[in-house]
User: Fold this.
Amino acid sequence: MGLANGVHHLAICTKDIKAQIEFFTQVVGAELEALYWMHGVDNTFHGFIKLSDSSSIAFVQHPDIAKIAPIKGVSHAGTTAGNVAPGVMQHLALNVDTEADLLAIRDRVRSHGHWIMGPLDHGFCKSIYLAAPEGIMLEFSTSEGNAIDAEAWIDPEVMALAGISVEEVERFKHPASFESKGGKVAQPKPDPTKPLMQFPADARIWTMPDEEVTRTMSETTPPVQTKKSKAA
Assistant:
């Protein structure tokens, strides 16, 4: 119960959302499904590119983003294996179901004049690679018929380099189950030793009850009223 089962959306900042929409719809073939002002954020809009009914890429644009200079090796990787700062996306890998689909998307990308490399066979998946607008390192992968066998693909040498013991690997492979309390677990006080968002320390958000957060910060009205949205 409650386990994540895929990526709902991956948010990526952009200074040119039109260029990103053009690339991901026309070159990649995904559909634009939303483009609107970001709820609760001043002067910011975002667009959602549909990957499936439950998975999207969300591009976020604010005027100040254009003032932030990208730096290879800091904000952006120069290749899909390049270094970037801790916590920053290195590359975006999108799934396709079969090797035939992988070759089809390669054909589509090349038909738009973009250089793309591969496929490379990684044993449990095959992948192709290219660069998208604004330095996004992009991969398409298929694991057709190649489910990962953890016994074969967890390397003892890398375990040692990462400081991970055999006992810890077993714990990581088999996370403890958790029985939902129906949302009744109390909100803990902000702990500076744990990751925190950058709200001001004196902001009420830190102590607002969940019900108040939902009531005051939610926005469900779409920007364009249609017969379907009015009925909802």
